[in-house]
Amino acid sequence: MSKQSDIGVEIAGIRMKNPVMVASGTFGYGPEYADLVDINGLGAIVVKGICLEACEGNDVPRMIEVRGGLINAIGLQGPGVDGFVESYMPFLRQFDTPVIVNIWGRDEEEYEEVAARFDDAEGIAGLELNISCPNVKSGGIAFGTDLKMAADLIGRVRKRTSLPLIPKLAPNVPQVGLFAKAAEEAGADALSLINTLPAMVIDIETRRPVLANRVGGLSGPAIHPVAVKQVWEAAQAVSIPVIGMGGIETAEDALEFIIAGAAAVAVGTANFTDPGTVVRVIDGIAAYLQRHDLASVSELVGSIRE
Amino acid sequence: MQIEKATVKTHDLVGGDYRELVLTAPVTAKAAVPGQFVHLRVPRLDGSVLRRPFSIYRARDDRLSILYKTVGRGTRAMETIAVGDTVDMIGPLGNGFPLDAMGENPALVAGGYGVAPLSFLAGEVDVRGTVFIGGATARDILCVGDFESLGWTVRITTEDGSLGEKGLVTAALDAWVATQQGTPPVYYACGPDGMLRAVGQRAVAAGHTAWLSLDKHMGCGVGACLACVQKIRGADGSVAWKRVCKDGPIFEASVIEWDA
Question: Domain ends where: B77, B93, B109?
């Protein structure tokens, strides 16, 4: 009989009951899923991207399902800093679950301002810095695919926040390890990866792109092996924790990330498919640790054999 | 709303290419009101990450049913559902039709399988009125008996004239509206976008009220992903995106900002 495993983790000083978070953009701001998912059971909740003022997002159609995933171009519609804090933080503070706010800006100054504003807000455990959204014309992925811009931006935001800072890296770069290292040197406390992959679908009858934004970001099980590889490379390049995400539908998908080097994981698109996914993944990780006689998640992190 | 594992009771063709999927789903059936929908995980739809939304056709005791027509990959996979299968369902979702706004002279306007939530509606109110059912051919006209047995007057139109009057449902509606004196009609409509828009424009122009059930491609179905948004005018005149799955799917015609 093996001893009880501890599935709690600590990422960038944020204590989590388990290593499974919900990924930004796939869980709204919390209340949307409160009837279906026990928010107290989540490792952490990462809310949908917030910029300074309310943002309208893109025109419709904004989402299209493809084989093994979906492409979205929501365009970061959101309530802005004040709207989020007033409308959603009272709800989120009811739970014993860390709240990580995904933030973005149209330029460096907006990123800095948003980060600084959240320093005064009560109940926020950390900031995920979105430098890799493929769906906004300015900001977004432009920062995430240029090594110098990414490092400069992370350094500037670092100076404006005392909260744990977790840049979310773009997957579509030739050497993600260089970006991971640059982020660490610029002051990141942890890293999230991967964001969605730039993608598009064309209607062959009209010969037009299906999405109003023409291109969007691919997520879902189709991107899981790409994400595992990027997490593996990034984790080797840094000593800060990496949060692995991309196409997790099962505990086995999550365990691959952990073995590749992720200290925690996030479930994204699968929240839409089955809101029960997070609980299944948590239970499956706990069962795996027991079966392999591992006392904690950390014993498994980066344990890949080569 | 909640997740319910429903059991398939029956699954039969009900006319033309339309099927009724009857589920034992006591929790969802008890809570459902007309105009709401369920978000189904289609079994054996490999590589699919999104559920599919269906208006609730019937909800009584522990039974709930939906009507659908095979139009794509998702509904083709639906055809393989067998009696006894378990179907994973989130529901009931959405706001539903306002039942107390119906007045004395309701007009229900249905296109194709859009008739399903209107049949549910017709059976949940005390008032009786007129139902306009339109389709491409006689094979697309469903649920006539549902309304007639409840005492509603049914007017059928088909584009090819194979049943009822030949033409669009809105032409029959126009002819009827011209004969109406006294209590102005209140419309409840569900069907293709073009039909909804035509009904809505007529109602707005005449100063009538029209409750339209919008159909948009949905992601999560619970208001989180912001995929199925529609521009809606607020009381102060400002226009903002509203979520069809959560704030709708029923909106009053005068607040809808249709695309150019």
Answer: B93
Q: Does A70 touch chain B (CB under 8 A)?
A: yes
**For B186-207, what is the mean pLDDT?**
96
Percent of chain A scored above 70 by pLDDT? Answer: 96
Question: Residue B260 above 80 pLDDT?
Answer: no
Contact B71, B78 (CB under 8 A): no
What was the pLDDT predicted at B95?
A: 97
Domain identity same for B127 and B207: yes
Domain range for B230? 216-260
Q: State whether residue A30 sits within 8 Å of chain B by CB.
A: no
Domain boundaries, chain A: 9-299
As for how many domains chain B has, the answer is: 3
pLDDT at residue A1 above 70? no
List alpha helices for chain B, DSSP H: 26-31, 73-78, 115-122, 144-150, 169-179, 193-206
Please provide the CATH number assigned to the domain covering A9-299. 3.20.20.70
For the sheet with B63-69, list strands across it.
B52-55, B37-41, B86-93, B2-15, B18-24, B63-69, B58-60
Q: Do A74 and B225 touch (CB under 8 A)?
A: yes
Q: Nearest CA to CA, how far is B93 from chain A (Å)? A: 12
Q: Give pLDDT tens digits for A75-112.
A: 999 999 999 999 999 999 999 999 999 999 989 999 99
Judgement on whether residues B130 and B26 belong to the same structural domain of the protein: no
Q: Which of A131, A133, A234, A238 is catalytic?
A: A133
Q: What is the DSSP string of B61-78?
A: TTEEEEEEE--SHHHHHH
Integer CA distances (angstroms), A49 to A76, A111, A190, A192, in order: 6, 12, 18, 14
DSSP string, A116-173: HHHHTSTT--EEEEE---TT-SSSTHHHHT-HHHHHHHHHHHHTT--S-EEEE--S-S
Summarised one tens digit per residue, pLDDT across range B48-102 is: 999 999 999 999 999 999 999 998 888 899 999 999 999 999 999 999 999 998 9
Catalytic (active site) residue A133: yes
Pick from A63, A221, A275: which is nearest to B219 by CB? A63
Residues B110 and B206 in one domain: yes
A296/chain B closest Cα distance in angstroms: 31
| Mean confidence (pLDDT) of chain A | 95
- Whether A72 and B49 lie within 8 Å, measured CB to CB: no
pTM of the prediction?
Answer: 0.96
What pLDDT, in 10s, does the model give residues A219-267? 999 999 999 999 999 999 999 999 999 999 999 999 999 999 999 999 9
d(CA A259, CA A276): 23
Tell me: do B52 and B158 sit in the same domain. Answer: no
| Domain containing residue B128: CATH number | 3.40.50.80
